[in-house]
């Protein structure tokens, strides 16, 4: 099962709080190409800071291992 129910507004509020730096709202949400195991978004704040948010699908396995694997292979 790949469906993941979540509260988008709560995600945006948490991202604004995490960024700080004078950000008061998220002005743009870009949904990245969905992989087999995750939903990913790039959130742009009103102070132009971007945040990468990843929501693991239930079939991804243990969250620690899936995130560690992605970070190790990510190209910036």
Task: Describe the protein.
The protein has 76 residues and is an alpha+beta fold. It is 30% helix and 28% strand. The protein is built from two helices and three strands. A hairpin with a 6-residue loop joins strand 1 (26-31) and strand 2. The longest helix is centred in the first third of the chain and has 12 residues, at 8-19. The protein is elongated, with a radius of gyration of 13 Å. The chain starts with 7 loop residues before the first helix and ends with a helix. The relative contact order is 0.21.
Summarize the structure.
The protein has helices at 8-19, 63-73; strands at residues 26-31, 38-45, 50-56. It is of the alpha+beta class and 76 residues long.
Summarize the SSE layout with pairings.
Elements (H helix, E strand, L loop, with lengths): L7 H12 L6 E6 L6 E8 L4 E7 L6 H11 L3
Antiparallel strand pairs: 1-2, 2-3
